[in-house]
Amino acid sequence: MTPTLSPHFSKTAATLLLALLLAACGRSEAPKAVSATAGEAASTAAPNSLSILATSDLRDIEPMTVDIEKATGVRVTFKFGATFESTEAVQTNTAGTDAAWFANAKYLLSDPAGQARVKLQEKIMLSPLVIGVSESSAKQLKWDGDA
How far apart, in whole angstroms, are the C-alpha atoms of residue 110 and residue 61? Predict the structure, then answer.
């Protein structure tokens, strides 16, 4: 059985996360141009915008960018990639985004180069586990509420 969250909870949690992330940015003016060294891509974020490199398993949040902009005044854009390619982009400083959001950063954090690039990390959600059992098993395990 696949764990799921209600659409309302998922949307609310994602909006709150991004609102907190945006508030933490505290950007009051456009980022200054940065000269990129060889192999290093500089972010091209416009004022009041946040570009995020995200692993492709987070693609479900992309439709919420309109709601996020309405709620925060900040335009959020996502650049989606596969886990290993996104990990490499962060490790080599070639992502060209303001932030990275990985559903699972174990590959990034298992490498010293990745650990050196991560300045702040926060777990925002744990997926609930849903277990389905037959009625007879629930009764046998006294999970049926009839104690």
Answer: 26
**In the block, residue with structure tokens 């764990």:** 3
Place of tokens 């950063």: 105
pTM of the model as a whole: 0.56
What is the dihedral sign for C-alpha 21, 57, 82, 91?
A: positive
Helix (H), strand (E) at residue 54: strand 49-55
Spatial separation of the C-alpha atoms in residues 32 and 14, rounded to whole Å: 28
What is the token pair recorded at 34? 């940065």
Q: What is the DSSP string of 70-120?
A: HHHS-EEEEEEE-HHHHHHHHHTT---SSEEE-S--HHHHTSHHHHHH---
Q: How confident is the model over 64-112, as pLDDT tens digits?
A: 999 999 999 999 999 999 999 999 999 888 999 999 988 888 888 898 8
